[in-house]
Design goal:
By secondary structure, the protein is an alpha/beta fold. It contains 2 helices and 6 strands, in the order βββαββαβ. The mean pLDDT is 96.
Length: 115
Amino acid sequence: MAAVPQVEIDADGTFKYILVRLQRPGGEERRDIVRGTKAAEFHNHIFEKVNPEMEKLGYECKCLGGGKIDHNSKDKKIRVFGLSTGYGKADHSVTAEILKKVYTDYEITWSDDKK
């Protein structure tokens, strides 16, 4: 599972994201990953791209929810907020902790605000 990047998000802007749990079929090891992009009109578009990629690697995927990410690479700030109409709200505190592992020199905040 270590071969799968924990975070793949756009380098800048405000965009939809999902929190996805990976697990081997019948296995106990799991890993939560964050995926987000401006290219996705809806949260399910992100999942529809991630799921087949992970299935090829032998993982089952479950979307734990979604929201939005505001990524300001110039000021090194990331804000996690909002929700997904289809998947519900992700646990933004979990998303923020995952982002902190990758963006170690960033200020990362989260809230349950819609905007």
